[in-house]
Amino acid sequence: MAVRFDPSVPEAGGGPQRRPADMLAEVIDALSEGLAIFDENALLLRFNAGFAEMNPAVADLLAEGLDWSLLLREWVVRGGLAPEDAERLNFMEARLAGGDWMVTPLEIESGDRVTQMVLRSTAAGGFVLVQTDVTERRVVEETERAADQLVRKVLESCPANIIMSRVGDGEVIYRSPAATELLGSAEHTHAHFASRAERADFITAVLPDGRVDDMPVTGIRADGARFPSLVSARLIQYRGEDVLVSSTIDVSKEVELRRRLAAQREQIFQAEKMSALGELLAGVAHELNNPLSVVVGHALMLRDEDISDEVLRRVEKISDAAERCARIVKSFLAMARQQPARLVPMDIAETVETAVGALSQSAEGLGAEVSLQIAPDLPPVRGDAHQIAQVVINLVTNADQAIGESGTGGRIDVSLSHDLAAQRVVLRVADDGPGIPRDIRSRIFDPLFTTKPVGSGTGIGLALCHRIVTAHSGTIALAESGTGATLVVRLPTTEAREAEGEGATLAAKPAGRGAVLVVDDEEDVSDLIREILGRDGFEVTVAGSAEAALDLLAGREFALILTDLNMPGLGGRGFYERLLRDRPSMARRMGFVTGDTMSPQARGFLDGAGRPFLEKPVAPEELRRLARGMLEGNA
User: Fold this and answer.
1) Residue-wise over 596-610: b if at least 16 C-beta within 10 A, else e?
2) Domain count, the chain
3) Strands (E), 33-97
4) Residue range of the domain that includes 424
5) CA distance to 331, 356, 401, per residue, from 370 (Å)
6) What is the pLDDT of residues 479-534, one digit of tens each?
7) pTM above 0.70, yes or no
């Protein structure tokens, strides 16, 4: 029980008067801590109510004169104190040593409460036991400890990398595992930046507002490789220092994705330009086809006439110029054409060899030395052999002309290889010429763009190559090279199916001659066709419209019918459909000579009809070949 003192002493003057000892007793009793005071003989002098409440196991023993050793022994026996705790509270050795002493604070758990005890010597040789209830503090500490553990687990498991570093020297205070994986374990953040200037810019950006978001920098990976990244950071105070908490995001994939999207946008833009240009070229070429057919045809036929050498020379100049115009128009048509390529399994090695051989053996020849390297066992590609050959011819011709015009270099290397991983065949045309200036490299596939002198180039060669390769689901690009220019074409491979009846050949049948009906609303063109076929032994009848041709067919048979496609009235399409309905045998003898092979409507009709056709401008030999082939097929 607590020691109580009488608060008053009678005085002669009348009422009670408070003494200092009484006031001290009240203060001790009012303390929230438990307090027990022992004299130099280790006997209990005073204790307050708080001490009795905190130690219910020995509360009934508490009385003035209680020996400290007895108190400890009963405390342990009654379960209020663990034996090891009692040992720690045994201060006898400290007392015997003399001087001031203190037993290290000891926490005691009793039920759901936790108290802390401290023993301290007094000046009179005794000691004081102070006991404090720390239950709430222990709960707060446990909560904080659990929160700290949770935060640490989150940081250790978080996929985002987090780094704490000092602002001044960049020393790393904390680094999450994700940050270590990405950036390594350098002691200072300087190692995370590609240059000190970038880190200085980063610090400069952070300091004014204490934050920076998604600042682009070049980072250094753990393996030393550089990568594009975005850094966000916050400036905080930690233990009296300015500290940066930062996170770095690797945006390599996003950068690559943006690059691909930009390339796709450029491809779409190129396709739109080609489509718009195609419409323009289609109109121009269609108007030029008929007059060019007349010029080319008559010029070629004049070569067979018995004329003087001087006239022949002039005729050849006219013929060469007209043929050049015809080639340009046909290039326009090929570039503007919207039909898909006729893709079949093809031997690209054979196609490339044929194209290079044709260039080398042509009348103009090649000025540069051409080497051809073809990897063995190349898989077939699905493509149009004629169009792929045109790509090869254009690329090699461009390289040869660049070398010849600049006087630089003299070698062209053409190679074919197999990219097994990408399942593509790679065609590479490299030269040691002057190369392509960096400022125009992005424009080389633009239609009508050329670096050649006026009159020397049309600017459609590489644009046509780009269109053909794209139609084959491939890519064409200018590769980085030390000298000269290197163009790389990649085409997807396919498994070629063995053609049924391989090795079987059709016996060639002798060409025959017969009556031919020519239907064209352009009189000059029909006269030209009549003259060309007439010289080859055909009997030619001309009709200026489909309706006139139907009237002629009502009274006689023809071995062949050659008709234009676009004409007033029924036109070539209506003419064919009428014959297919009323006289299918005559419809099977029909062929088309037309300048409109680019529109989807015309292309769809020609593909659906399955009949032979010849594209204007008309060359005499092509026309004769068409007529003979049709006769052989119909015989």
Assistant:
1) bbbbeebbebbeebe
2) 4
3) 34-38, 44-47
4) 348-495
5) 25, 8, 13
6) 877 788 899 999 998 753 333 333 333 333 333 467 899 999 888 888 888 888 88
7) no
